[in-house]
C-alpha cells in the first residue's frame, strides 16, 4: 500500500512537471524570439538570441502607438467587465427570486442564446449599427462596450443564477425584517456574498475581451480607437509577416494581463476555489 502511494505521488508529480513545462514553454519561446531578427527566428527559433537588442521593442512601441492602444484596451476591458458583472448579477437575482413563467422562459432563451455563433450575427449587426444607424463611426468604443455587454451577459447570468440559488433565502428575509428594501438587500447582503463567483466571471471576461480581435476589428475603424490586438495588424503583410516586430508586439500585449494576474492571483485563486465549493 505504501509503495502504491509513493508510485501514485511520483506519477502525479511528474505529470504536474510535464503540464508546467507545456504551459510555460510557449511563453519562454515568445520571450527568446522577441530579441531576434527575422532570419534568426526562421532558422533557429529554439536557440537563445545572440544579443539582447531592445530597439525592436522601442520600434514596436512607437508603431503600435502603445499609450493610446493600451488605454483603449484598458477602458474597453474594464468597463465591459464591470457592466457585465453588475447587470448580470442583478438580472440573475431577479430571475432566481421572482420565479414566474416569463422569467423561466426568459432564462431558458438566454441560456439557449449561448449556442448561437457570433459569426452568424456579425454581418447583420454591423449592417444595422454601421450602415443604417451610423453608430460605428459616431461612438465606436461605447458601442463596442455595449456589444460586449450583450454577448457576455448570457454566460454570466447563467453562472450567477446557479450561485444565487445556493444562498439561503432566510438571509434576505432577515434583512427585510430589519427594514431593507429589495435594492438594499441585494447590494448590502447578496452582492457581497457573490464575490467568489464575481471574481471568476471577471477573469473569464477580462481574458476574453482583452484578447478579442474579431469584434473590435469590425467596430473600430480608426487607428485612434484601436485596441491592442487590432493594432497588431500593422505588422502583418499580404505575403509575409514581420516576425521580428510581431513577436515583441504580442509580448507587449500579453504582459499587462500577466502582471494583473500576478498582482491579484490570491484573490483569483480564492474566488475560483470558493466558487467551485459553492
UniProtKB/TrEMBL annotation:
Top-level taxon of the source organism: Bacteria
InterPro entries to which the protein is assigned, alphabetical: MetI-like, MetI-like_sf
Transmembrane segments: 12-32, 73-93, 105-129, 141-164, 185-210, 245-264
Membrane topology type: Multi-pass membrane protein
Claim: Transport is one of the keywords in the record: yes
Coiled coil: none
Primary site of residence: membrane
Domain ABC transmembrane type-1: 70-264
Keywords, alphabetical: Cell membrane, Membrane, Transmembrane, Transmembrane helix, Transport
Subcellular location: Cell membrane
Family of this protein: Belongs to the binding-protein-dependent transport system permease family.
Protein name as catalogued: Raffinose/stachyose/melibiose transport system permease protein
Amino acid at each position: 500500500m505504501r509503495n502504491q502511494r509513493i508510485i501514485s505521488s511520483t506519477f502525479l508529480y511528474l505529470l504536474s512537471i510535464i503540464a508546467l513545462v507545456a504551459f510555460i514553454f510557449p511563453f519562454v519561446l515568445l520571450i527568446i524570439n522577441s530579441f531576434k531578427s527575422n532570419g534568426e527566428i526562421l532558422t533557429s527559433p529554439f536557440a537563445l538570441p545572440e544579443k539582447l537588442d531592445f530597439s525592436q521593442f522601442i520600434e514596436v512601441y512607437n508603431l503600435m502607438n502603445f499609450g493610446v492602444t493600451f488605454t483603449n484596451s484598458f477602458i474597453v476591458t474594464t468597463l465591459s467587465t464591470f457592466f457585465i458583472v453588475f447587470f448580470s448579477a442583478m438580472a440573475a437575482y431577479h430571475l432566481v427570486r421572482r420565479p414566474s413563467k416569463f422569467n423561466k422562459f426568459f432564462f431558458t432563451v438566454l441560456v439557449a442564446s449561448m449556442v448561437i455563433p457570433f459569426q452568424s450575427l456579425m454581418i447583420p449587426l454591423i449592417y444595422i449599427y454601421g450602415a443604417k444607424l451610423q453608430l460605428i463611426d459616431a461612438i465606436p468604443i461605447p458601442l463596442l462596450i455595449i456589444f460586449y455587454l450583450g454577448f457576455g451577459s448570457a454566460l454570466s447570468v447563467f453562472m450567477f443564477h446557479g450561485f444565487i440559488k445556493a444562498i439561503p433565502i432566510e438571509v434576505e428575509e432577515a434583512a427585510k425584517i430589519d427594514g431593507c428594501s429589495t435594492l438594499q438587500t441585494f447590494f448590502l447582503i447578496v452582492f457581497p456574498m457573490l464575490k467568489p463567483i464575481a471574481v471568476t466571471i471577471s477573469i473569464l471576461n477580462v481574458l476574453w475581451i482583452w484578447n478579442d480581435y474579431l469584434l473590435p476589428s469590425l467596430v473600430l475603424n480608426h487607428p485612434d480607437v484601436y485596441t491592442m490586438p487590432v493594432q497588431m495588424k500593422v505588422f502583418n503583410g499580404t505575403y509575409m509577416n514581420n516576425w521580428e516586430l510581431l513577436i515583441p508586439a504580442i509580448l507587449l500585449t500579453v504582459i499587462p494581463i500577466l502582471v494583473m494576474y500576478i498582482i491579484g492571483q490570491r484573490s483569483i485563486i480564492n474566488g475560483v476555489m470558493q466558487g467551485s465549493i459553492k
